[in-house]
Amino acid sequence: MGIIERFNELQPEIAEWRRDIHSNPELLFDVHRTAALVAEKLREFGVDEVVEGIGRTGVVGVIKGKVAGDKSIGLRADMDALPIEETTNLPYSSKVPGKMHACGHDGHTAMLLGAAKYFTETRNFAGTVVVIFQPAEEGGGGGREMVEDGMMERFNIEQVYGMHNMPGTPLGHFAVRPGPLMAATDTFDIDIEGQGGHAAMPHDAIDTTVVGAHIVLALQTIVSRNVDPLKSAVVSVTTFHTEGQAYNVLPHTTKLTGTVRTLVPEVREQVEKRMKGVVENTAHAFGAKAQLRYIKGYPVTVNSVEETAFAVGVAGQVVGDEQVIADTPPVMGGEDFSYMLEARPGAFVFVGNGDTAALHNPAYDFNDELIPVGCSYWVRLAEESLPLA
Ligand code: NI
After folding, report:
1. Are 178 and 188 members of one domain?
2. 107 CA distance to ligand 1 centroid (A)?
3. Is 77's pLDDT higher than 90?
């Protein structure tokens, strides 16, 4: 029986795991139920070694091939959900108010479990497959914690691969590119201090609402006037809070927050530096004081060239070359798989979820029809990378 046939057969069972995880979403590192379910399944399949608690609540499974070998490959899925109230009304929709699997990590986890089951049934490879289930992709840096926990060395992982579903891309189509695929995701706080006062006597005050408004506008010039037009950057101010509560009081302080997205380190440094200058000097021009706190988040997700070409070839075997885009444009969203790609060569790929609601949307649902394709990709990636002969 071929791989895809076997996964067509396993699809209802894998979809059942997926829906069970979907009904019980957990946030960040608090994925205790999901991680326990993953570990239990891996043991049930006969995975050679199952280790829990890597990167706090991450789970790693080690599967030996039918032929011993020095080579190894790491395959990674994420397990965490989002603080969103689900609106799908599906029979298996979230049982937890305010939490939902709106990014399809339920599907990623189920597909990697499906692949692990197949690996233990067949072991058609020489060497070691390491299946990695990480917590806290959505902002907590679970990938970083697993790497800092020594996962790569401990399990002797030589190369590492990740996969994310993509709504709006036709079902089972792959999209990837060598080099930067997803952005560095930084955040910032700007604290402005002026002089509060009576709104009818602005000449006796330093109005931080006006200062804040000028800073928001001035920040727009960093992308339009400072960054090389052939490079990419996003500076978005997302909140603007004055301390004011009344119609007739000028606020003493105002606070802005937002996010910065970039694809190369030089632009990341440039934006941070320019922001500091713009924020402090704009405030200064109005007689106010402002302070920028720039917080570096996930680094750029950079696919290594050779491993990306390899992933493209494998995806082509699974779905046909005409359904694989090998030079998709980068996106300004972020991914903490970037920490694993900083530690080892590998590739992160997008796979089409079909015509569903967008990621992080309350109406989103992972497409279970994707399961045979995603599982087959994992299996072929390992078998091609660790060939028997
Ligand atoms: Ni995601």
Report:
1. no
2. 10
3. yes
Ligand 1 center to residue 103 CA distance, Å?
Answer: 5
- Tell whether the model's pLDDT for residue 168 goes beyond 90: yes
H or E segment and range at residue 240? strand 233-242
DSSP class of residue 206 equals: B
Residues 268 and 212 in one domain: yes
Ligand 1 centroid to Cα of residue 298, in Å, is: 13
**Which uninterrupted H or E stretch holds 383?**
helix 371-385
The pair phi, psi for residue 195, each rounded to 5°, is -140, 115
Task: Tell me the percentage of the chain whose pLDDT exceeds 70.
Answer: 100
Distance from the alpha carbon of residue 108 to the mean position of ligand 1, in angstroms: 9
Task: Look up the CATH number of the domain holding residue 23.
Answer: 3.40.630.10
Residue 153 lies in domain: 3-182+300-385
Q: How far apart are the first and last CA of the chain?
A: 20
Number of C-beta neighbours around residue 229 at 10 A: 8
Burial class (CB in 10 A: 0-12, 13-18, 19+), 362: middle
Number of domains in the chain: 2
- Phi and psi based region of residue 245 (left: phi greater than 0; alpha: psi -120 to 50; beta: remaining): alpha
The alpha carbon of 269 and the centre of ligand 1 are apart by a number of angstroms equal to 26
Q: Which residues are found with C-beta within 5 Å of the ion, ligand 1?
A: 103
- Cα of 384 from ligand 1 centre, angstroms: 26
